[in-house]
Amino acid sequence: MTPHDSSHPDFNRRDFFKGASMAGVMAMLGAVPITAQEAAKAAGEDKNLPQPKADPNYKEKPLGPPVNIGIIGLGSHGREIITHLAKLPNAPVVAIADTYKQSVKRAAETAPKAKAYATAEELLADADVKAVVIATPTHQHKEIALAAMKAGKHVYLEAPIAHTIEDAREIAKAAAALPKGQIFQSGLQSRENPQNHHVLKFIRTGATGKAAMSRGQWNKKNSWRRASPNPEREKALNWRLFRETSLGLAGEVGIHSLDTASWYLDSLPVSMTGFGGILQWQDGREVADTVQLVVEFAGGVRHTWSATLANSFEGEHDIFFGSSAAVLIRDNRAWMFKETDAELLGWEVYARKDDFLTDSGIALVANATKILAQGKKPAEAASESDSPVRYALEKFVEHVNDGTQPEASAEAGFRAVVMAVKANEAVTKGGRVEIAKEQFVV
Question: Does pLDDT of 51 surpass 60?
Answer without folding.
Answer: no
